[in-house]
Each structure stands twice: as structure tokens, then as C-alpha cells.
Amino acid sequence: MFRPQLTKFSLSLYVYTLFIILWGAWVRISKSGDGCGDSWPLCDGALIPKAQSWATWFEYFHRFTTGLFGLLVIYLFYIGLKHYRKETAVWRLCILIFVFTVIEALIGALLVKLGLVVDNDTFLRLLYMSIHQVSSILLSGFIGLLWLISKRQKYVLDFHRSHILIAAAFLLLMLSGPLAALSTTLYPSQELWQGFLQDLQPGQHWIIRWRGLHPILSSIIGAAMVYLVYLRYQKTKDKKYETFLKILVIALLFGVSTLLMLYPIWMKLGHLALAHLLWLAVMRLLIKDKL
């Protein structure tokens, strides 16, 4: 696979990855996570289920698309081994993509086998969802980085201190995302301010009392990232910082709008998609074009 073909393949794989992640979020939101029972990777113990419920078919479609994704990643791993082993960055990314695909599959299997789906509101489910969130964002980022690198003939990886801080802060923010996602799915609010006051009342489930953590962290970390990236842009005038700032501002405004509108489903999915696109912009920060 020559470099132009790798560019097209990795871009297609990135778009497909986002689709799978968003569909997985829809499975959670629609409470279809137990649609195939506790069997994995089969659905109700069969390759093709006979059930008529939408929950079964939602979950089955998710498993089918992720299985196809796994085959594509194996093919990418083979191509990397055959044609790009001497190109250290490309080869290492192929390995990382393969490893995190396996990790994602194992986490998905554990969520099903341990019954951490549908109305389960335990800390164990939140823990697995947080790990799932971070591993999926890393996976999409590695695929996106592969696409960005494959487009270039000459580049160097730019691990500036500010870039590392931005990446670490973003991953910390992603750890708190499932807290808001799970709580608003299981315990939706009817009114914003009144719901916020009720969340703080004694006797509320712990997941409700802590769901404000993600919006608070988003405000603090978002402001810090704007400051760091703006300083880098003023110093370098590199357009990649300007692009990052635009996506970051859009993501923050969309997040605020999602909160104010009490998390409608389409905005939840849009918010998640913007998070992955913002992470791709973080990956772009790590690449410096050589003249």
C-alpha cells in the first residue's frame, strides 16, 4: 500500500471509527446494551439473532460493525508490517491501533459479561465506562494521527511541553465525561436550575450528586487550553493553533448549549463527535511540517 492509498485508507478508517463510537453511545442511550444477553461475541448465543426487539438489533449491529472494524485493523497491521516497518512513526501507530482495538474489544466484552449495561448505576460501571472512553479517544486519535502523518513526506513529531499539558488535560476531562453521560441517561433532569439544586440534596444517588463535575472541569480545563494555545499561536503564528482554537470554542459552546437544553440525544452524540474531532486537533499539534 503506497502512501496515497494509506492516506485514503486511514481517513476512511477514522470516519468509520467515529461512526462506531457514536453508535455505541446510541446503544447506551437507548438502553440496548443487554440486547444480546450476556453472550459475547455472539448475540443470544447465535451468529445472527432471531429476536424481534429493537434493542437486540441495535446491539447486534454494533457488534457486527465493530467486528468488521477489527478485520480492517488486522489488515492495517499487516500492511504496516509489510511496507512501513522502516518508517518508525507509521509502524508504531499501526501497533498502537491494533493494541487499543484489542483493549476496546475486551472492555466491551466485560461490560456485557458483568452486566454493566442498561440501568446499572454502580461505580464499577462508571469505572469501566471511563476507561472505555479514554481508550476509544486514544484509538481514534492514533488512527487520525496516522492519517495526518501519511499525508506528509517530511515531518517531525513536536512534543512541546504545552502540547503534552493540553493532551493530559484533555484526557483528564474525558475521564469525567461518562459521569455526566451515564447520570443524564439514567436520571434525566426536567429543569436546569431546579434540577441542579435537587442534585445537591442529601439522599440523592452519588452519581447524581457528582454529575456537575464534568461541566465544571470543562470550563476550567477549556479556559486553560485556550490560554496555552493562544500563547503558542502568538509566538509561532502556526495555523494549526488557530484551527485548534476554533474547534475548542465550538466544542465548549456546544457543550454549554447541551447542558442548557438538558442533554437531548442528538446533542449528546454531537458533543461526543466534537470531542473526538478536538482530540484529532490535539494530534495535529504534535506534527511539525519540515520545509
- Uncertain segments are none
Order of helices and strands: HHHHEHHHHHHE
Structural class: mainly alpha
Average of per-residue pLDDT values: 89
Strand order across the largest sheet: 1-2
Helix content range of the residues, please? over 70%
Q: Count up the helices.
A: 10
Overall geometry comes to flat
Cα Rg: 20 Å
Calculate the terminal CA-CA distance, rounded to whole Å.
Answer: 25 Å
Domain count, please report it.
2
Annotation, overall tally of beta strands: 2
Largest β sheet strand count, sense and barrel closure:
2 strands, antiparallel
Sheet-strand content, in percent, reads: under 5%
Commentary on this structure:
The chain contains ten helices and two strands. Helix 5 (161-186) runs antiparallel to helix 8 and helix 9 (239-260) packs antiparallel against helix 10. The chain is mainly α and 291 residues long. The chain has helices at residues 3-29, 54-83, 88-113, 123-150, 161-186, 192-199, 206-209, 213-236, 239-260, 265-285, and strands spanning 155-157, 287-289. It starts with a helix and ends with a strand. The protein folds into two domains: 1-151, no CATH class; 154-291, no CATH class. A two-stranded antiparallel sheet has the order 1-2.
